[in-house]
Amino acid sequence: MISASALPRLLHRASGQPLSLAEHDQEFGLINPQMDLLTELRESGLTGRGGAGFPTSKKVELLRDQRGHGKFVVVNAMEGEPASHKDLALLNANPHLVIDGAEMLARMIGANRIAICVSRDNPLVINHVNRALHERSRRSQRGPEVELHTPPWRYVAGEESALIHWLGDKESLPQYRPHRPTILRIGRNAALVDNAETCANVGLIGRFGAEWYRTLGTPTSPGSTLVSVTGAVAKAHVIEVALGTPVRSILEVAGADTDPSAILLGGYGGTWLSGENIRFPFATEYLKEVGASVGAGIIMVLPRRACGILETYRITKWMANESARQCGPCAFGLPAMADDLQQLVSGGQGRKQSLDRLIRRAAEIDGRGACKHPDGVVRMVRTALQVFEKDLHNHINGSPCVASRESKFYATVPRFEREEDLVWE
Ligand code: SF4
Predict the structure, then answer these.
(1) pLDDT in tens, 263-288
(2) Which residues line ligand 1 (CB under 6 A)?
(3) Which are the contacts of 305, defined by CB distance < 8 A and separation ≥ 6?
(4) What is the pTM of this model?
């Protein structure tokens, strides 16, 4: 049995290969059919690992109470965020734990179908999931039908309503949802969407229970979490840590720069924090003091030689291109914000006016999209203007920005094609 206080819990694998079904059973033990899953889930305090941090048991209760047509459990392993690799690392290590969790969720809400979604440009992960499904199909157990879906990769394709839209109509377009949580539907069927890491945690709780689960982490943020560390690090890392581990310790284990100029928490739509904040424990109850959260477990490290304003411009430009172009503030506002930042960075005439325009546009765009895509960019830009005040001052005054000569785009992570491109511990 997996030890309660030891890591890794989620990233167990055998000699560089994903755990086979037999190895998985041996490592994790069999599922306890007598367990009151929903009670254990509630008491575990598990929150979604996809970014929003909503209590998983509450989502389950909402879906369990839906009557009428069939129900789906959708496992979101789209990993639309370029700085995140955790779900791919997880499916490469232990696909059966994710599928176990999805089956337990299906049991709790009474779903008859499970859709596992991995973007189609991850052939290695798709192979691992297919192999896992094949292994399970040879066991004559009755249960929900499990299907693998491979939507095209895009940033917004991983947004849960866009994913549901794709499963129904093959279009990755987010849906307008004024009230949350909302019941998402594929056709007439209610769908519970959970991130792959969330499902794997359910797979643990359904075996070992809430008390076991809470032996790691903090009282408010129990359990372990997967963290993608990118930027000023020799290789992109996915690390499993107990929630509440200091950010500095995470960077040390990842071999990242531990004297950074800044870190970007939460990915391209996240929050910039100045480097001294790596002293904070990686748990939302601590990070919220500085306006951040654990989100989807992404830490991008910016070294002191880089320019935060240039990096922010590059991210904004990339995010502007990723808009689904359904909503004006996003389709036109984000490219305009990228233009303002470019003018600031390039040091041309009217730099001060560019900054004023940028601040005004951020206020106009915030909260106006059908999804949170533009809000994330606004948050990232606003925090950049605070954290990189010195860089900003230099650009506005036309002082030479030595850091701007740095050609590396730190927030870019090469797409994960080979297993050895990614390290996990
Ligand atoms: S806010 Fe942007 S990404 Fe979201 S639905 Fe509207 S256009 Fe698409």
Answers:
(1) 999 989 999 999 999 999 999 999 99
(2) 156, 174, 323-327, 330-331, 369-371, 373-374
(3) 403, 406
(4) 0.92
